[in-house]
Design goal:
The chain is of the alpha/beta class. It contains 27 helices and 24 strands. The two termini are 28 Å apart.
Length: 698
């Protein structure tokens, strides 16, 4: 089973990167093929690249994709153009998941200058169909107070984080005084009992271990304006604590312990001597920092020098500021792990891994997570498949501004080789104003120069209907008919129209010239409804006013096949005002019979009906109305009993939910012809072109 986990912060500075890379180590120890990806760069230091992917690269053989720079994605977010970046992210995720079973995605942490972190993390969860792991850090609050914060935050989470029960990791929790009497597993079980909740699972607790934040002396030296008096073991010794020593030595004895950085004025010979004594006794101080503008007594330094060389040597540094100023500056240092500090990276990853509930992770990864194709992922799939197909698609409304703009974008993204049919001068001027170019992926066809070529072929196709050359010439004055003839003769792979024409105007020439495919009883249509969390399919909402049971079954099978072709595993609900016999009447009987026919023709298809819409979509309603249905509460393909119901429902959902709808896509023709709504957007046209190109390749 393949699983994507998104780590999401609760509160500021939760240690999200530490937990994320620690999860990589955890899954690696479980034997999973695990990968890591941080889509959006976010570093404490704007002058350096985000270190998170470099940590993984430093201690594993994995090279994560480079994150999108903060300057790029923050600007795109401001301009509401983040969807194009999400498609790039989806491409990276798809590539990673080809060779891995588990992917850890690191989300964004809150920053004062960025107010949309929650929205972006929600977009990631939706777009990637990711399971959420929430990370919270215990600060000064008690565990009970921490639980209250967690409960409150869980309640406010948006839906995609709750598609699967979210997991929680508590980072840097404070261990009880008697915790040394418990094993780590026992301590975790006690914590888990305290955080027991139906709303989330506590899957990890990482103790507040000072060693995880222990900076090397050499990194400290690079961060402050210090000179080196004695280098010592500057490469390896680490700072566990800063100790400002300004009192009498007898009051400071507790400061001279392993990992302490002793900060004292340069004229405090007693403190310097005490540091030398500690070193001679085998206490590995982190280092000695001498402050102020006074000189070190040379006799004292010479007296202590031998002791400073014990155990690799005590580093002695000099800083010209006062001890108080120096200590204040030290405490404000960025303690981010340097990417070349392999030992500390491994320590962080190992500490986090030891705090994880591996049984929970193993069990979760054994479960099959229902696939939800998000709108962004769906559009990315369309773009990728269409580009691969490389089809020639005709746009007979070639002078229409939205159509021209969409054709330019299709050309830029190589979604299809679009042909704009219309006056070359009008089209050319518009293309130039939009900074587009005519070339391999964008053509202009002058219908006046092309029409005569299709008079004889049209007469040949329609002579049984009494069509004459004169009638054919008149018919070809319509650019949609001209384009349909070109598709019929194989000179183009498909056509898209309807931005300024009715559905009937687009479909009628196709029905008479391209005709119905041999395996289809009729031509029908579907809409791809791009709801916030997933893409649903509605059919038939554009073509057949009142199909009979046989035709309705055919629409269901066509729609299921289309769903599969576009990466949606079909779960088909046959919609009615009755759920599985709760009501009666001829309309219900028609849907019942259509369901039976569809099951008989394709036994492997997951289909059920009649179902009311709420029973088909809502799990709690389904549990009451249709508890044994394989589709109820979980449908993604909806087949409406007639055009009145389908068209009304699609428009109501589109406008009320403010969701994009792509289509109608026609099914059952020998070659693809697709219709647009007259209220279509540029984006709608782009993806309808992509749909058409993919249909042509199938």
């Amino acid at each position: 089973m393949k699983h994507i986990f998104l780590t999401v912060p609760i509160g500021s500075e939760p240690g999200l990167t530490s937990v994320s890379i620690g999860l990589v180590r955890t899954f690696d120890r479980l034997g999973s093929k695990v990968s890591y990806y941080k889509p959006f760069s976010q570093s404490h230091d704007s002058k350096q690249e985000d270190p998170a992917p470099l940590y993984i690269q430093e201690v594993t053989s994995h090279v994560p994709p480079a994150p999108i720079p903060a300057s790029t994605w923050s600007r795109a977010n401001d301009q509401q153009h983040i969807e194009s970046l999400l498609q790039d992210i989806i491409e990276n995720v798809n590539n990673l998941m080809e060779d891995h079973d588990v992917l850890i995605i690191e989300g964004l942490i809150a920053q004062a200058e960025l107010s949309s972190v929650a929205e972006i993390n929600t977009l990631l969860a939706r777009s990637l169909n990711a399971e959420t792991i929430l990370v919270i850090k215990q600060r000064d609050q008690s565990l009970e107070e921490l639980k209250q914060v967690l409960d409150r935050e869980i309640q406010s989470l948006s839906l995609p984080h709750k598609n699967a029960k979210p997991a929680v990791v508590i980072n840097r929790y404070k261990q009880a005084d008697d915790s040394h009497q418990l094993t780590q597993k026992e301590a975790f079980q006690a914590l888990k009992a305290q955080f027991n909740s139906v709303n989330y699972d506590l899957i990890g607790a990482v103790p507040n271990t000072p060693a995880m934040g222990a900076m090397r002396i050499k990194d400290f030296l690079h961060s402050v304006q210090a000179s080196v008096i004695h280098e010592g073991d500057i490469e390896n010794r680490r700072i566990l604590d800063f100790c400002l020593c300004a009192r009498q030595v007898e009051n400071l004895l507790g400061a001279f312990r392993h990992g302490s950085l002793i900060v004292t004025p340069a004229d405090r010979s007693d403190v310097i001597t005490a540091a030398a004594l500690a070193a001679s006794k085998g206490i590995q101080l982190a280092g000695l920092v001498l402050t102020g503008n006074t000189e070190v007594n040379p006799d004292i330094y010479e007296f202590c020098q031998h002791a400073f060389k014990n155990d690799g040597g005590l580093s002695v540094l000099r800083i010209p500021t006062s001890s108080f100023e120096a200590t204040t500056a030290f405490l404000a240092l960025n303690n981010e792990v340097p990417v070349n500090d392999t030992a500390r990276i491994n320590l962080v990853m190992d500490t986090v891994a030891r705090g994880m509930d591996t049984d929970w992770l193993r069990q979760r990864c054994s479960q099959t997570i229902q696939k939800r194709l998000s709108p962004v992922a769906f559009k990315h799939r369309l773009s990728r498949l269409a580009a691969k197909a490389n089809k020639r698609i005709l746009l007979p409304e070639g002078e229409e501004p939205r159509t021209i703009e969409a054709a330019i974008e299709c050309s830029r993204r190589k979604i299809a080789r679009c042909v704009l049919i219309g006056d070359p001068l009008i089209i050319g001027n518009k293309i130039e104003s939009l900074m587009g170019t005519v070339g391999e992926h964008l053509e202009i066809l002058d219908p006046a120069q092309a029409r005569d070529n299709y008079i004889e072929p049209l007469v040949a196709l329609r002579k049984h209907k009494g069509v004459t050359a004169s009638a054919a010439k008149d018919a070809l004055l319509d650019n949609i008919t001209l384009a349909t003839m070109m598709v019929t003769l194989g000179e183009a792979d498909g056509l898209v129209s309807g931005a300024t024409h009715s559905t009937a105007h687009t479909i009628r020439p196709a029905l008479s010239l391209i005709k119905t495919a041999p395996n289809a009883a009729l031509v029908s249509s579907i809409f791809f409804m791009c709801l916030p969390d997933q893409v649903l399919i509605y059919g038939d909402c554009a073509v057949n006013p009142n199909p009979n049971a046989e035709q309705l079954a055919d629409i269901a099978l066509q729609s299921a096949a289309s769903a599969s072709a576009f990466g949606i595993e079909p779960r088909v609900a046959m919609i009615s005002y009755s759920t599985l016999g709760s009501g009666s009447g001829s309309d219900v009987e028609k849907v019942t019979e259509a369901t039976r026919i569809a099951k008989e023709r394709m036994p492997e298809l997951i289909i059920d009906g009649p179902l009311q819409y709420d029973a088909a979509t809502n799990a709690s309603v389904a549990a009451t109305k249709a508890p044994d249905s394989p589709v109820a509460g979980n449908a993604n393909v909806f087949i409406f009993p007639d055009l009145n119901t389908g068209n009304t429902t699609y428009k109501a959902v589109q406008r009320s939910a403010q969701c994009d709808s792509i289509g109608p896509m026609l099914q059952g023709l020998n070659r693809p012809v697709n219709d647009l709504s007259r209220g279509t957007s540029v984006e709608d046209i782009i993806y309808t072109v992509a749909l058409t190109a993919i249909q042509a390749s199938q």
